[in-house]
Design brief:
There is one protein chain. The protein is mostly beta strands and 207 residues long. It folds into two domains: 7-104, Immunoglobulin-like, CATH 2.60.40; 112-202, Sandwich (Immunoglobulin-like), CATH 2.60.40.10. Helices cover 0% and strands 50% of the residues. A four-stranded antiparallel β-sheet has the order 4-3-6-7, with no helix packed on it. A hairpin with a 2-residue loop joins strand 1 and strand 2 (18-24). Residues 5-107, 111-207 form the Fibronectin type-III domain. Pfam families: fn3. Keywords: Disulfide bond, Immunoglobulin domain, Repeat. This is NRCAM protein. It comes from Copsychus sechellarum.
Length: 207
């Protein structure tokens, strides 16, 4: 098997899901056989928003021939990763380079995990929601938009409310009685807005 590990391993984080890794090639005489390529082992150490350490799954990408760089796609935003590089010949892999740590920046969050509308009265509705399963960063706020839908399914004016990130419920007051409303709800990080969840509900006709 090869004798030495690739040196000078560098990671360039391109965005929240993509990084480029490059390394110095090993001297050919230390390959001790036919150079088949380089393998990059990489794994997520932890998410920076949820401090949970789960089972660590190592991923391996093989770059054929005498390449000295490769792309690592499909990374999770706002996470800490480690990687190392090994050279490969027909017999197997050489020793691993020292582990290199890198962090991906924040991304936009997934949609809120649920949106539930309860306690209809003549002029109010209560909204409850769950935070996104994948915040992909630090949540800065939620945005609620809603509009009435009339009997011919035409949409009325859209109202927009910004809600602090630590809230999980809201009572909407001053609504029209016996009216159907459509709600659009999403979460934000400093990078931008995540995908929205929609729901409809009706205020009651009379007490």
């Amino acid at each position: 098997v090869p004798m030495v590990a690739p040196g000078n391993v560098q990671v360039h984080v391109i965005n929240s899901t993509l990084a480029k890794v490059h390394w110095d090639p090993v001297p050919l005489k230390t390959v001790r056989g036919h150079l088949q390529g380089y393998k990059v082992y990489y794994w997520k150490v932890q998410s920076l928003s949820k401090r949970s350490r789960r089972h660590i799954e190592k991923k391996i990408l093989t770059f054929r021939g005498n390449k000295t760089f490769g792309m690592l796609p499909g990374l999770e935003p706002y996470s800490s990763y480690k990687l190392n590089v090994r050279v490969v010949n027909g017999k197997g892999e050489g020793p691993a380079s020292p582990d290199k740590v890198f962090k991906t920046p924040e991304g936009v969050p997934s949609s809120p995990s649920f949106l539930k509308i309860t306690n209809p009265t003549l002029d109010s509705l209560t909204l409850e929601w769950g935070s996104p399963t994948h915040p992909n960063g630090v949540l800065t706020s939620y945005t609620l938009k809603f509009q009435p839908i009339n009997n011919t399914h035409e949409l009325g004016p859209l109202v927009e409310i910004r809600i602090p990130a630590n809230e999980s419920s809201l009572i909407l007051k001053n609504l029209n009685y016996s009216t159907r409303y459509k709600f659009y709800f999403n979460a934000q990080t400093s990078v931008g807005s995540g995908s929205q969840i929609t729901e409809e509900a009706v205020t009651i006709m009379d007490e």
